Amino acid sequence: MRAWLPLIGAAAVLGGCINLAPDYQRPAAPVPAQWTDASKVAGPQATQLAWRQFLRDPRLQRTVAQALANNRDLRVAVLDIEKARATYRIQDAALLPSIGLTAGQDAERTPTAVKSASAGVSRVNSVELGFSAYELDLFGRVHSLSQEALETYLSTIDSQRSTQITLVSEVANDWLTLAADRRLLALARQTQDSQQRTYTLVQQEHALGATDGLELAEAQSSLQSARNDVAVYTAQATQARDALELVVGAQVAPGDLPDAQVDAVSSLTDLPAGVPSTVLQQRPDVLSAEHALKAANADIGAARANFFPRISLTAALGSESSALSGLFGGGSRAWSFAPSVTLPIFDAGANRATLAASKASREIAVATYEKTLQTAFAEVADSLATRATIAERLDAQDQTVAADQRAYDLSMALYRQGSYSLLDTLTQQRLLYTAQQAQVQTQLAAQTSLVTLYKALGGGFEQTDMPAVATAL
User: Fold this and answer.
1) Domains with residue ranges and CATH for the chain
2) What pTM, to 2 d.p., does this model score?
């Protein structure tokens, strides 16, 4: 065994001494150097704001935590990490020889037709310690494959983080959508009750001959329209709850569901200043794409190494004897050493095709990385555009509702005094109802745009939510 140690040591030193993979350089970010409103924003990074701090409502926090524990997409992402880690460890193990102990017996009977003497049975018992077909990685082929597997593993970790960020934002948006739908349903029911009171009043006046049939028909039409809205929003709220529970992956407790009020989400007070390349390149999906690019880069090194000789070693040291009793006796020591060299001479262009495919894969990975950055930039830019005007939209909608409420109250008072027509009163009521619906939708747009911006800047991941399998090799 001592005779093998120098050989194994030399193999470890020589292995991977040449790296044929191209020098990795991060592609330039194919996005503008500055956001349009970047000069107006400054503050903490979104990635430094945990989702439990961003989403203040305890019911929403519990719903998000439930989704992190039950969502199947996130569960698949975690299992992908396990698989990628095991694949990397398998490939990394090829850098060292795999030593095994073999024990066996070879028995052979030679017939008299072959052997002039009497037929007999010969036996050889053996015990050997050695390794088989260990590749000396002189040109870095095995090392490149190991590096490729490592980058693939790291890519799956960032993919899991990206999946979690997306899940947090989806749950928050679905939860807020359900809150808005429930408020619209409450508003529709409130309008139906108001229309019912108006219709009852007109019925009574019509029975006394104070109103004609046209006004009665108009009041009934408005009532039926409100009834229809109640039915529509009832179904819409039910569908919103189903969508939320599908994302969560389990039934949400009634106490964790939103009520008819649009609950406030904590504001991301300011946005981080700086160029997109310093902000967006920290997003998990961008990091995942970059790891995939590095893996493709390493694969080129393995493909180039196929053009060079491949040296393999097989060696064993042990003992052989015809009898078990003499297996470890004097003169039973045996050894074998079988180096082999494979030099590619003609492969019908297979190695060139493999190298061409690796280079094409790298270019695909570059394009994917650049596209991921562009998508990230567009998401942030769109969210900034919404956030830039959302406060003005909210104020304008609030003022509209207040004005329509005053107009409706005044028209209703004038109608009861007999100085205003029922048709005009119902028109004012519809305008108020429409403005209130738009107010709910604007409030929802303000909240979802904030959640989207938080996600676009890479917020929503907490290390404490990371499964243990993904924290170490």
Assistant:
1) 21-99+138-308+356-470 (1.20.1600.10)
2) 0.78
